[in-house]
Specification:
The protein has a domain at 9-66: Double Stranded RNA Binding Domain (2-Layer Sandwich), CATH 3.30.160. It contains two helices and four strands; from the N terminus they run αβββαβ. Helices cover 20% and strands 25% of the residues. It is of the alpha+beta class.
């Protein structure tokens, strides 16, 4: 998958902190604090590249988790704000 431009600053400011770690099966996991963005990766390098891309290339907003980090897909996304008529 090829990315052409980073997400907008407004998206980055909402969930800018990403956690990287391994799940119980040894897969590399990336997820944001709200659990709305993330994924499973084959290696640490790919996981880090994804996290940096998603947070606007801010390495200070990436945290390596020393314990188990599971990817929880059961979190419901936030509803978009209603547009004023």
């Amino acid at each position: 998958m090829r990315h052409t431009e980073p997400p907008s600053p407004s998206v980055c400011s909402q969930t800018s902190l990403f956690m990287i770690g391994r799940d119980r099966e040894g897969h590399w996991v990336v997820r944001d604090l709200k659990g709305l963005r993330g994924g499973l990766f084959i290696g640490r390098t790919e996981a880090l590249k994804y996290a940096l891309f998603e947070n606007g290339n801010r390495p200070q907003a990436v945290v390596m988790v020393p314990g188990v980090l599971e990817l929880d897909m059961s979190v419901a996304p936030l509803a978009p704000p209603a547009l004023a008529a």
